[in-house]
């Protein structure tokens, strides 16, 4: 797998990846119907297309030349000092092979002036939490700006970056 910037031609594959990963992660928690409703809204082609041109952001895919195995989206805020990781997903069949780490590393490298990375994650997504903690993120006392599908605030994690 190699990591590159996403383009218009990737959107159908990225949508399929997001639908698959969301169903694998959240069907048991929220039910398949709720997950389909969320992915139809949040991961529509139109929604993904709008992310391609978002200012001060990076939309990446992990590609092996045959398929898209992962994706990540982040934006820089606070005058370039803070990277907000919005999404990082790897196909379930490819998880545990270093693809998430490659995507995370490339996101960080995309914002050389940043001093920290921040993300929000649902408390029930224990596999993602374990991944982030293994990659140097620490849970913050802050309450997430978002809520999960059950209405609970998301957890906030931060990782300082050495300049």
How does this structure look, described?
A hairpin with a 4-residue loop joins strand 3 and strand 4. The mean pLDDT is 93. The longest helix is centred in the N-terminal third of the chain and has 20 residues. The protein has five helices and seven strands, in the order βαααβββαβαββ. It has a seven-stranded mixed β-sheet with strand order 1-2-3-4-5-7-6, sandwiched between helices. It is globular, with a radius of gyration of 15 Å. Helix 1 packs antiparallel against helix 2. The chain is 37% helix and 33% strand. By secondary structure, it is of the alpha+beta class.
SSE layout and pairing:
Blueprint lengths: L1 E4 L5 H20 L1 H11 L2 H8 L4 E7 L4 E10 L4 E9 L8 H12 L5 E6 L4 H9 L3 E10 L5 E8 L3
Parallel strand pairs: 4-5
Antiparallel strand pairs: 1-2, 2-3, 3-4, 5-7, 6-7
Helix pairs in contact: 1-2
Provide keyphrases for this structure.
seven-stranded mixed beta sheet; 37% helix; alpha+beta; 163 residues; 5 helices; 7 strands
In terms of structural class, how would the helical and strand content be classed?
Answer: alpha+beta
Taking Cα atoms only, what radius of gyration do you get, to the nearest Å? 15 Å
Helix content: 25-40%
How much of the sequence is in beta strands? Answer: 25-35%
Shape from CA axes?
globular
For the residues shown, what is the average pLDDT? 93
Instruction: Give a short account of the largest sheet.
Output: 7 strands, mixed
Strand order of the largest sheet: 1-2-3-4-5-7-6
Number of strands: 7
Give the distance, in angstroms, between the N- and C-terminal Cα atoms.
27 Å
Low-confidence stretches: none
* Count of helical stretches: 5
Secondary-structure element order, N to C: EHHHEEEHEHEE
